[in-house]
Automatic annotation (TrEMBL):
Gene3D superfamilies: Aldolase class I. This is tRNA-dihydrouridine synthase. Residues 33-335 form the DUS-like FMN-binding domain. The lineage of its organism: Bacteria, Pseudomonadati, Verrucomicrobiota, Verrucomicrobiia, Verrucomicrobiales. InterPro entries: Aldolase_TIM (IPR013785), DUS-like_FMN-bd (IPR035587), DUS_fam (IPR001269). The keyword Calcium does not apply. One of its GO terms (molecular function) is RNA binding. Its cofactor is FMN. FMN binds at residues 92, 162, 191, 246-247. It comes from Akkermansia massiliensis. Catalyzes the synthesis of 5,6-dihydrouridine (D), a modified base found in the D-loop of most tRNAs, via the reduction of the C5-C6 double bond in target uridines. It is an enzyme of class 1 (oxidoreductase).
């Protein structure tokens, strides 16, 4: 359900952000947690609250929209119905049939959510094969129908879109953005890669800059925001209204509070291995609370899904032994043996992995130049 306070909270101007570093901004930008399947759930939201490192808003893992009226995932709905953070949360839909997207959007708005987000960026092959997520970007007609169906049923302030630049090539965005703009979404988040590029290529901030200048609604940048330096690079290159962070928030859940400190000109906190251990303990407790019936193997398997990101920048022994833990007791013993000390936790992940790649290309870029012939 949409409230007046929620609308006021999100009323932003794309063009109000000055160039340069964070310090001295007159109006700081929005920060958001990117939706990630199986990990950005209620347990993680609660953990961020426990650590006092909250973004401005959340988007749920996606709800699949299907033809037969299937009950929405109770597990994901808990992120909306039991959200303890005091921050708005949007329900995300993935699908391609307009009438069923509209049906499920109305169903979501019966819950305590700020609005509905359309997923037009998920690169998972199974999703794309169904012409949903990033697969929808292959058809302007399908996009137009889906966007129109949601705009028709959602009130002002309640409709957002998350997309990529295209399916094969970034220049597809020149045709995609006008279709999105025609349906006046209330906010657009752009993952600045194509579906084919996945997560392993450099991002293309020039296209986000173009969207910032072309759209009347706030534009949020997503992709390769791993620390304060890369966030600063996005501000400098594209001047978005906000930043959406996914993998880096799982690795370093303090990233939101660290960026808020940067906004205020304060030195960000520097977590230690012992702080990481505290994070893992809280997450362990919160994931345990989510289980209706305790299954130890299931619990440890879910913990490993989160910590594959946290392991980047920790000793290799952590990743090695953590992945081999079979019981909760062994799992926590491994974490304590390696992390119960005051060694500094690196704020920036190593770049030589498939999880965090090519973010230094963003730092090295001096200017985000639009391709020849593109007009705002």
């Amino acid at each position: 359900m949409l409230t007046a306070s929620t609308l006021s909270f999100f009323r932003q101007d794309n063009h109000s952000l000055p160039t340069g570093a964070f310090h001295g901004m007159h109006r700081r930008m929005l920060l958001a947690l990117a939706p990630m399947k199986d990990v950005t759930d209620l347990a993680f939201l609660k953990t961020l609250k426990d650590l006092n490192s909250l973004p401005d808003y959340f988007i749920t893992e996606y709800f699949r929209t299907v033809a037969h009226h299937k009950k929405m995932s109770p597990y994901i709905l808990r992120s909306i119905d039991e959200n303890p953070t005091g921050r708005p949360i949007y329900g995300q839909l993935v699908g391609h049939e307009p009438e069923y997207l509209a049906r499920d959007a109305l169903a979501l708005m019966e819950h305590d959510c700020a609005g509905v987000d359309l997923n037009m960026g998920c690169p998972a092959p199974m999703v794309c094969r169904r012409n949903a997520g990033g697969g929808m970007l292959r058809s302007l007609k399908a996009m137009d129908a889906a966007l129109g169906a949601l705009r028709d049923v959602l009130p002002a302030g309640a409709f957002t879109v998350k997309c990529r630049l295209g399916y094969e090539n970034p220049d597809e965005f020149e045709r995609i953005l006008p279709v999105i703009a025609a349906h006046t979404p209330d906010r657009v988040c752009i993952h600045a890669r194509t579906v084919r590029e996945g997560y392993r290529s450099p991002v293309h901030p020039e296209w986000v800059k173009w969207a910032v200048e072309a759209l009347d609604c706030p534009v949020v940048a997503n992709g390769n925001i791993v620390d304060a330096a890369t966030a600063d690079a996005w501000v400098r290159l594209a001047r978005p209204a906000g930043l959406m962070i996914g993998r880096a928030a799982l690795r370093n859940p303090w990233i939101f509070s660290q960026l808020y400190d940067r906004f205020q000109g304060r030195a960000p906190a520097s977590p230690t291995f012992r702080d990481v251990l505290h994070y893992i303990r809280r997450l362990h407790e919160r994931t345990l609370e989510m289980q209706k019936r305790y299954v130890e193997e299931k619990h440890i398997h879910r913990m490993k899904k989160y910590l594959v990101y946290t392991a980047r920048g920790l000793p290799d022994s952590f990743d090695h032994y953590m992945k081999r833990a079979k019981t909760s007791r062994d799992f926590m013993r491994i974490c304590e043996d390696i992390l119960d000390n005051d060694a500094p936790f690196a704020p920036t992940p190593p770049e030589d992995t498939h999880l965090f790649a090519h973010f230094h290309a963003l730092l090295a870029q001096e200017e985000a130049c639009l391709p020849p012939g593109i007009q705002v």
